[in-house]
Amino acid sequence: xxxxxxxxxxxxxxxxxxxxxxxxxxxxxxxxxxxxxxxxxxxxxxxxxxxxxxxxxxxxxxxxxxxxxxxxxxxxxxxxxxxxxxxxxxxxxxxxxxxxxxxxxxxxxxxxxxxxxxxxxxxx
Length: 124
Known about the structure:
Distance between the termini: 73 Å
Radius of gyration: 20 Å
Order of helices and strands: HHH
Shape: elongated
Helix content: over 70%
Oligomer: single chain
Largest sheet: none
C-alpha cells in the first residue's frame, strides 16, 4: 500500500452510510415541514406581499434543500474514495460547485426580492 492509499474498514463505511441515510431522511422530513409552514404563511389572505413572501420562502427552502443534498452526495463520495488524490479531487469539485451554486442562488434571490419590492411599490 502506497502512502497515498487508504482503506476505510467495511464496518466504518457501513456506519457512515447508515448515518448519511439517517441524515438524509431527517432532512427530508424537515424540508417537508418547512414547505408546509411556508405555504401556510403566504397566499391570498396577505395579498401581493404574502405571495412575494411565499415565493421568497419557497426559493430559500429550495436552495437549502439543494445545498444539503449536494453536501450529502459529497459525503457519500468521500466514503468511497480510494486514495488521497481522489479525496482532494472530490473536495475541489465540491467547493467549486458550491461556489457556483451559491453565486447563482444569490443572483436569483436578489432578482426575486427586487421584483417583490417593485411589485409592492406599485400604486394600487
